[in-house]
Write a structure and sequence with these properties.
alpha/beta; about 425 residues; five-stranded mixed beta sheet; Rossmann fold; globular; binds 5-phosphoarabinonic acid
């Protein structure tokens, strides 16, 4: 089970106690669906979009794809690809059907590279888009659909999947052309879709155990409902974020010594930036890939302007092992002889926490192991905590008005009517 600790928690105890009732009230609102965002909370009750029946349909489609294709192209951007990519790149099967990401760029070279990657490969494509107006997936889908048509001729529709909202234009096109359609829940915003068709189908193609992932999320939900408020990890995290924000800490860095979180970091940045950054408020989310980036941004974290607090994300039980070999050359690294890199990495983590907590507020989030079950726990935990954090800050967690304004200008420049 996920565990959270706050370094020097006693310093913040009075503030924590004063915010606990309000935060707990927001949490109860979320689980009882008693506040105004009922049209965006479809992710809270996992059975709504990740029932056994839906999971079985996903698994059977994924099985078909794994049998028929060397590559699966996930066409989607932001909330339509970040969750799946974070799990696939971390624990997905690298020996089976290869997952290729598209529809997340407007750069011609990247588009050409994707097409090149598909040469001589059998493939399926899945266009994932909620409103199907977004430029990257919309244009990417056209390019790849044409490639699919050129490659497979009359049979091409069998290899095209779409994930969109029911009765949207994407749905109509799918019916017309005979594409296999999966629904993108209307009551779930992109960044909250990890445990829906949006995240789960690509993960299943990469042979991720999506039933275990949903179980992890369900058990996290139960624990967040049952924990006493002062021990509830989502309340501890969201309340402390707001306390640190009140102390002028305007940035949160999520750091890890486990490189397998590097794509999860992208998901986390989107979740908090898009949910919280509005109305002139919000904590700017950044991430730290350690130990590498200790040698670049570490200096700022330690001695720069005190505007940051840090949350470490770590896995406790790791099976990986690689020992430092002995050597006859005296390179002054003999003190590492026979030591395991996992132990050295762990020491680096502990030393960094000790050093960083002297100059900024620090929290630690730990999970037992890195597998589908714990990814489910992390997704659900951060989604709930983000909701409570936004409510404490007084912003709507579910809209993104700022994103719309650049899109409008871009559409005007491109001559969209
Ligand atoms: O979380 C969100 O709502 C956004 O980040 C969207 O996921 C992103 O803009 C992609 O939108 P769409 O699914 O409409 O292509």
């Amino acid at each position: 089970m996920l565990k959270i600790t706050v370094e020097n928690a006693i310093q913040y105890k009075d503030k924590f106690d004063s915010l606990l009732d309000e935060a707990n009230h927001h949490l109860a609102d979320l689980f009882q669906s008693t506040d105004s965002y009922t049209d965006s909370k479809g992710w809270v009750n996992l059975n709504e979009h990740a029932s056994q029946e839906k999971l079985d349909r996903i698994i059977s489609k994924a099985q078909e794809i794994r049998e028929q294709a060397d590559a699966f192209v996930l066409i989607g951007v932001g909330g339509s690809n970040n969750a799946a990519r974070s799990v696939i790149e971390s624990i997905g099967d690298k020996s089976g059907t290869q997952i290729i990401y598209a529809g997340d760029t407007l750069h011609p070279q990247k588009i050409q590279e994707t097409i090149n990657k598909l040469e001589d490969k059998s493939f399926y494509i899945d266009c994932i888009a909620k409103n199907f107006e977004t430029l990257e997936p919309g244009s990417g889908f056209r390019v790849l659909r044409k490639l699919c048509e050129r490659t497979y001729g009359d049979e091409y529709a069998r290899r095209v999947i779409t994930t969109g909202t029911v009765d949207s234009l994407l749905h109509k096109i799918s019916r017309q052309e005979g594409f296999d359609f999966f629904d993108f829940p209307l009551n779930v915003g992109g960044r909250f879709t990890a445990m829906t068709n949006v995240g789960l189908l690509p993960m299943a193609v990469a042979n991720v155990d999506i039933k275990a992932l949903v179980k992890g999320a369900e058990e996290m939900k139960r624990s967040l409902i049952e924990s006493p408020p002062s021990e509830n990890p989502a309340l501890i995290y969201s309340i402390h974020r707001n306390i640190f924000y009140g102390l002028n800490r305007k940035l949160e860095i999520l750091s890890s010594f486990d490189y397998r979180f590097n794509f999860f970091f992208k998901w986390w940045r989107q979740l908090f930036a898009e949910s919280e950054g509005k109305d002139g408020k919000g904590i700017f989310p950044v991430t730290g890939e350690f130990s590498e980036e200790l040698h670049s941004i570490g200096q700022f974290l330690q001695d720069g302007e005190p505007i940051i607090f840090e949350t470490f994300l770590e896995v406790i039980n790791k099976n990986e092992s690689y020992k430092v070999p002995k050597d006859h050359i005296h390179d002054q690294f003999d003190y590492l002889d026979g030591k395991d890199f996992s132990e050295i990495n762990r020491m680096a983590y502990e030393a960094t926490v000790e050093a960083h907590k002297l100059s900024m507020p620090v929290m630690n989030i730990q999970i037992d192991s890195l597998d589908a079950y714990h990814f489910g726990q992390l997704f659900y935990f951060f989604q709930v905590a983000c909701y409570v954090s936004c409510k404490l800050m007084g912003v709507n967690p579910f809209n993104q008005p700022g994103v719309e304004s650049y899109k409008k200008e871009m559409f005007r420049k491109l001559g969209k009517l």
